[in-house]
């Protein structure tokens, strides 16, 4: 289906599935589909790209482990797939039988506290339009507006939402602003964010000045500030300005599972965190 007439302009790979956006803005998914993560309404895996959410046009998409998200040209965010620990889809979408073992909701769909999963893409409620980018980790998502505001939702065990809280009981089932006021850190109150990337359990953002911010799990040093914390996490977005990165603005960022990467304007590539796979 992705012939020479449908060139791809954006692509994202999850654990075992992928999403792509064509030049015309069409959204395609393919791969394994054990968690409804392809958004086609069933668990049938697809070895060829399948178009979803037509006739919507899209500008950003992200494939995670159990779920996916996408932003259309109107700035609306859609999510689909599993919303539970380990991708458990044993219940109905929003209810579980009285004798069933109810799985733990992790909130990464941002659809509120009732969803165990979603077979098809659904718009994330509680936020207005104007979004231009989305990036998802295992159990959380980041979303960026055209004005540079950063939002997050999902699991917050390692502080990956950047709102100052951490722990399983601080997860957010709906989007929250990231560190925009004194009550939740204030780190980004006067900062315009232009790019985002979510790792498995940590997050990163790039400012319009080329400054790099990282937060969340630091179990493998992925924060990059050289500080060993007793709790191995960073609850607020931390600006990384120590040498040799100081005064070198960045232009591209990417968070891996437990590693972090950034490309500077002078062409230097920096990486830090886990190196267990090289």
What does this entry look like structurally?
With 278 residues, this protein is mainly β. It is 0% helix and 41% strand. The chain has no helices and 19 strands. The protein has strands at 8-13, 17-22, 27-31, 46-52, 58-63, 67-72, 77-82, 117-123, 131-136, 140-145, 150-154, 172-177, 193-198, 202-207, 212-217, 233-239, 250-255, 259-264, 269-273. The strands form 5 sheets. It has a 4-stranded antiparallel beta sheet with strand order 1-2-3-4, with no helix packed on it. A 4-stranded antiparallel beta sheet has the order 5-6-7-8, with no helix packed on it. A 4-stranded antiparallel beta sheet has the order 9-10-11-12, with no helix packed on it. Strand 9 and strand 10 (140-145) form a beta hairpin. The mean pLDDT is 93.
Shape: globular
Gyration radius over CA: 18 Å
Average per-residue pLDDT, rounded, comes to 93
Number of strands: 19
Are there runs of 5+ residues with pLDDT below 50, and where?
Answer: none
Helical fraction equals: under 10%
Number of helices: 0
Q: What is the succession of H and E elements?
A: EEEEEEEEEEEEEEEEEEE
Strand residue content: 35-45%
State the distance separating the first and last CA atoms: 35 Å
Largest sheet: 4 strands, antiparallel
| Main β-sheet, spatial strand arrangement | 1-2-3-4
- What structural class do helix, strand and pairing data support? mainly beta
């Amino acid at each position: 289906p992705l012939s020479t007439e449908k060139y791809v302009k954006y692509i994202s790979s999850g654990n075992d599935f992928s999403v792509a956006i064509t030049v015309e803005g069409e959204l395609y998914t393919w791969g394994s589909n054990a968690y409804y993560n392809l958004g086609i309404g069933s668990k049938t895996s697809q070895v060829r790209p399948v178009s979803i959410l037509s006739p919507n046009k899209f500008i950003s998409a992200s494939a995670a482990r159990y779920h996916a998200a996408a932003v259309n040209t109107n700035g609306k965010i859609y999510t689909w797939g599993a919303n539970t620990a380990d991708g458990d889809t044993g219940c109905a979408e929003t209810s579980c039988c009285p004798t069933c073992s109810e799985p733990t909701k992790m909130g990464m769909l941002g659809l509120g506290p009732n969803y165990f999963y979603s077979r098809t893409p659904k718009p994330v409620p509680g936020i207005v339009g104007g979004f231009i980018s989305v990036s998802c980790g295992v159990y959380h998502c980041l979303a960026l507006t055209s004005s540079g505001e950063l939002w997050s939702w999902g699991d917050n065990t390692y502080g990956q939402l950047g709102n100052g809280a951490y722990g399983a009981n601080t997860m957010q089932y709906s989007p929250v602003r990231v560190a925009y006021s004194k009550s939740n850190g204030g780190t980004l109150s006067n900062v315009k964010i232009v790019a985002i990337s979510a790792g498995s359990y940590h997050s990163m953002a790039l400012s319009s000045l080329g400054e790099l911010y990282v937060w969340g799990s630091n179990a493998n040093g992925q924060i990059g500030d050289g500080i060993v914390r007793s709790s191995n996490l960073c609850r607020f977005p931390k600006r990384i300005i120590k040498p040799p990165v100081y005064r070198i603005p960045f232009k591209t960022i990417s968070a891996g599972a437990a590693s972090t990467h950034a490309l500077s304007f002078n062409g230097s590539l920096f990486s830090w965190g886990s190196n267990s796979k090289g």
